[in-house]
Design a protein that fits this description.
heterodimer, A: mainly alpha, three-stranded antiparallel β-sheet, 11% strand, B: alpha/beta, five-stranded parallel β-sheet, four-stranded parallel β-sheet, 9 strands, 30% helix
Chain lengths: 146, 305
């Protein structure tokens, strides 16, 4: 049974948000949005590998790589959807390099704990919850297939 | 004090040309006293990535909705909101946004509930302004707050509630119309949610009996502007069969796409009795014992209603 404990990388992101006033949290989300890493070359030509996160209000695609038990998350979202890009970026940055158990142990409600709900609305935050959920599901699929 | 109206030829054809402004007009009038430009988008961060100089942001989720009860904000909150954005009762407000002015139309409809007289849409919205290479800034304007009166809403003219729709169904089909503006898959009942918005679902799928399927985007041209008067008449009057004097109710999922259609029917085509049913499918599709029809046919009201 996996413990649900928050990895340090995500705890840090959470604390950074919580330390700010409401309006500054949106600014920080925008910064994350601008930081969403470009896809590595090996994925740029393979849109077929990506899973669409249909819960998000704009097209977001994710792909999880597991190499020697280490997780790398890749995501793309259009520039016209900065909120969705911001969500994806938080997860990509927070999850990259973590072990499989650590990622599976991230509490499902993590997106509701980082102080953004009031700033973006509860409805919108569900997009991030879906991103996290699908990431975990892809990991389980990789493990099952191994 | 009202800003002058946009006299563009395309607008002159509409029933109420004073409800639209072109990007040319806006570029010319930006910064004039008595005019406030409002951006209203689906994405809450889009404004921060760049907006029309001087524009203020009003977010539908955060600013126009009551956080607890499923309704719009009350008179005090609305007055506070508008006053804080520098909008007075007689200010000319031009609203624009992403996605063919979808959410801008919804915001304009809420302004209409509160009886704000001079509120207009920017034809083509945010995307056209940007596509035309016009100025965009990230600078947030310094707004001097003003007084906005506390005005109680009178929803009856442009808002329909579930009971209104049930009563509407009970009337003779001549002279009344229901317009379902969702995607074809939602209309037939293949899906309960819009293809890209599955978190706003309902327990049952289909459409309200007798509703005509007219997906909202049919009213928009490829560049996000509204189609011409002739093109819109061809759709709504010729194809759908709406006639002057009809009592029309439009709906979608939560009333946002249908407010775009409401704008078209009321302000562009001049129908005088058009209401937006904002409860829409998220309400109807989860309500006990209301009639529902599946498939591509409009369907009939069950006997005994």
């Amino acid at each position: 049974m996996t413990d649900t404990t928050l990895p340090a990388s995500l705890a840090e992101i959470r604390d950074d948000f919580l330390a700010l006033e409401q309006r500054d949290r949106l600014e920080m989300l925008l910064e994350f949005s601008n930081e969403l890493p470009e896809l590595p070359e090996r994925y740029q030509e393979h849109p077929d590998l990506f899973e669409r996160v249909v819960e998000c209000q704009s097209p977001v695609f994710i792909f999880v790589e597991v190499t020697d038990g280490v997780v790398h998350l890749f995501a793309t979202a259009p520039k016209e959807s900065p909120t969705t890009r911001g969500f994806a970026s938080i997860l990509v940055q927070g999850i990259d390099g973590l072990g499989v158990d650590e990622v599976l142990g991230i509490p499902d409600d993590f997106p509701n704990t980082i102080g953004l709900t009031e700033a973006v609305s509860p409805l919108r935050i569900r997009g991030m919850t879906a991103l996290l959920g699908r990431t975990k599901r892809q990991i389980r699929e990789r493990l099952a297939a191994a | 004090m009202s800003a002058e109206f946009d006299s563009a030829a395309k607008f002159a054809e509409y029933a109420h040309p004073e409800r639209l402004v072109s990007t040319d007009w806006l570029a010319e009038h930006l910064g004039e006293p008595g005019l406030v430009v409002v951006e209203s988008d689906e994405d809450v961060l889009l404004y921060e990535t760049g907006h029309i100089p001087g524009a203020v942001k009003i977010d539908w989720h955060l600013d126009l909705n009551d956080p607890v009860v499923r309704d719009y904000v009350d008179a005090e909150r609305f007055a506070e909101l508008l006053g804080s954005r520098g909008i007075a009762r007689d200010t000319t407000v031009v609203i624009y946004g992403d996605k063919n002015n979808w959410w801008a139309a919804y915001a304009l409809w809420v302004f209409t509930l509160f009886g704000h007289e001079d509120v207009r849409l920017l034809d083509g919205g945010r995307d056209l302004w940007i596509a035309e290479g016009r100025e965009i800034t990230t600078a947030v304007p310094d707004v001097a707050p003003v007084e906005y009166p506390v005005v109680e809403r009178d929803d009856r003219a442009v808002r329909a509630f579930k009971d209104d729709v049930l009563a509407h169904l009970g009337q003779s089909p001549t002279g009344r119309a229901l317009i379902d503006v969702r995607s074809p898959e939602e209309y037939t009942g293949e899906r309960t949610t819009a293809p890209a918005y599955p978190e706003e679902g309902a327990l049952r799928a289909g459409h309200i009996p007798t509703a005509a399927s007219v997906p909202w985007a049919r009213a928009a041209a490829a560049d996000g502007t509204f189609k011409t008067r002739a093109e819109l008449d061809a759709i709504y009057r010729d194809e759908v069969g709406l006639t002057d004097g009809d009592d029309i109710v439009a709906y979608c999922r939560i009333g946002e796409r249908s407010s775009h259609t409401w704008f078209v029917l009321q302000h562009l085509l001049g129908f005088e009795n058009v209401r937006n049913y904002d409860g829409s499918w998220t309400e109807w599709g989860s309500t006990v014992r209301v009639p529902i029809v599946r498939g591509a046919e409009r369907g009939e009201v069950p006997a005994g209603r």
